[in-house]
From TrEMBL:
Segments passing through the bilayer: 18-35, 47-67, 74-94, 100-118, 130-154, 166-186, 193-210, 246-269, 321-342, 349-368, 388-409, 416-433
GO CC terms of this entry: plasma membrane
Lineage: Bacteria, Bacillati, Bacillota, Bacilli, Bacillales
Name of this protein: AGZA family xanthine/uracil permease-like MFS transporter
GO molecular function, one term: purine nucleobase transmembrane transporter activity
A Pfam family this chain is assigned to: Xan_ur_permease
Organism name: Kurthia zopfii
Localization in the cell: Cell membrane
Keyword terms, alphabetized: Cell membrane, Membrane, Transmembrane, Transmembrane helix, Transport
Gene that specifies this protein: pbuG
Lipid bilayer topology: Multi-pass membrane protein
InterPro entries found in the cross-reference section: Azg-like, Azg-like_bact_archaea, NCS2
Length: 435
């Protein structure tokens, strides 16, 4: 075991890897509560989504740990689950079953790209400034979703949105949770988001805002309501998938997952000291782990599975090898028996997690060249149109339309890859026939 995971070469041991794996789990365990809560709003069975979330995290983390040998855990990604629930299903009117098919196709394409050199071409084609803007925009979007779900902001006829009613118990609970989360994050407490969810749930129970669970552990909920549903349209009604709207859904899932994974891999590996000559060893295996996790996760019944930047918490605690990811996977397996505790969690409890993750994602704004207007325009529009348009896809589309235009006007047309010109026309068609 030590030899396979290269303990001696990496200067690590079982104790450091186990502590690192546990720390990573605590840092990302909030997804067990947030993902079922978010996806169940589409009509999906909450218990089945909980199991799909945990099992996807188990499989993805095991593949990453054993195949790619990186201390990086995987689970259904934040932002992509919001896109699934609030854009694909709520805004586009696509059934959640077909949405899962879109995730499945994006996973298959990701696998193909990971087996070829095409992935490098695509990564190089998308300007890094727009990648930062997409990340920041998703951060704003999921924060908006969290605040809206908690009742902290509500609809208003005169101003579109306004502050909610702070005399409501659920809203006050969300505010208390955000305060707790901020305190824990500032104090750099490991697993701050997960601890916030636990403390908020306890406060909610004590104040009567949340129901007290009837049990702590139970048998694992059935996966039947979601298992294999992603394959139904392919086998029974493939013609329903032959439209531009479905293509945009697949491309958006693929795009966000592709670059989110690449960025996370580099960030975590760099913190662990695993990057060699500005290159990531076994990068193909790492990307393949993500692609397989997404494909398998869609069949189980959850949105896109991706690498978690929270893995940096485990690295900071000492993790250096894939054994830490295996430890995290084992803990996700144990969590399957604690569904009764998570079943009572509401949007008021998960709101702080969305806000904190949003803050962390928006930090990429500092890397954008705001002093260059031809960059600032598409970057800003990409970012701002996600929450205002209540759609990650719309934000990406607007930014990718304006980028070639502003670069041409600035006399920098040679810096624009031909793929960006192709995407320009794709997204123009998106607004004409889809939006």
């Amino acid at each position: 075991m030590k030899k396979y995971f290269q303990f001696e070469e990496l200067g690590t041991n079982y104790r450091r890897e186990i502590i690192g794996g546990v720390t990573t789990f605590l840092a990302m365990a909030y997804i067990l509560a947030v993902n079922p809560e978010m996806l169940s709003s589409t009509g999906m069975d909450k218990g089945a989504v909980f199991v799909a979330t945990a099992v996807a995290a188990i499989i993805g983390s095991l593949i990453m740990g054993i195949l790619a040998k990186y201390p990086i855990a995987l689970a259904p990604g934040m932002g992509l689950n919001a896109f699934f629930a609030f854009t694909v299903v709520a805004a586009y009117g696509i059934p959640w079953q077909t949405g899962l098919t879109g995730v499945f196709f994006s996973g298959i394409i990701f696998i193909i790209l990971s087996l070829t050199g095409i992935r490098e071409t695509i990564i190089n084609a998308i300007p890094v400034q727009l990648k930062y803007a997409v990340s920041a925009g998703i951060g704003l979007f999921i924060t908006f979703v969290g605040l809206k779900g908690a009742g902290i902001i509500v609809a208003d006829e005169a101003t579109l949105i306004t502050l909610g009613n702070f005399t409501q118990g659920s809203t006050l609970l969300a505010v208390a949770g955000i305060v707790i989360a901020v305190i824990l994050m500032v104090r750099k407490v490991p697993g701050a988001i997960f601890i916030t969810i636990i403390l908020s749930t306890i406060i909610g129970m004590l104040t009567g805002v949340i129901e007290v669970p009837k049990a702590i552990v139970s048998s694992i909920p059935s996966l039947a309501p979601t298992f294999g549903v992603a394959l139904d349209p392919i086998l029974n009604d493939f013609s329903s998938l032959l439209n531009l709207k479905f293509l945009i859904v697949v491309l958006t899932f693929l795009f966000v997952d592709f670059f989110d994974t690449a960025g996370t891999l580099m960030a975590v590996a760099d913190k662990a000291g695993l990057v060699k000559n500005n290159k990531l060893p076994r990068a193909g295996r790492a990307l393949m782990s993500d692609a397989l996790g997404t494909t398998i996760g869609s069949v189980l019944g959850t949105s896109t599975t991706t690498a978690y930047v929270e893995s940096t918490a485990g690295v900071a605690a000492g993790a250096r090898s894939g054994f830490a990811a295996v430890v995290t996977a084992i803990l996700f397996g144990i969590s399957l028996f604690f569904f009764p505790l998570l079943d009572v969690i509401t949007s008021a409890v998960t709101a702080p997690a969305l806000v904190i993750v949003g803050i962390l994602m928006v930090s990429s704004l500092k890397l954008i060249e705001w002093d260059k207007f031809e960059i600032a325009v598409p970057a800003f529009l990409t970012m701002i149109m996600m929450p205002l348009g209540y759609s990650i896809a719309s934000g990406i589309a607007v930014g990718f339309i304006f980028y070639p235009i502003t670069m041409l006007l600035a006399g920098r047309r040679k810096e624009v890859h031909w793929i960006m010109y192709l995407l320009f026309f794709v997204f123009i068609a998106y607004f004409i026939w889809v939006r």
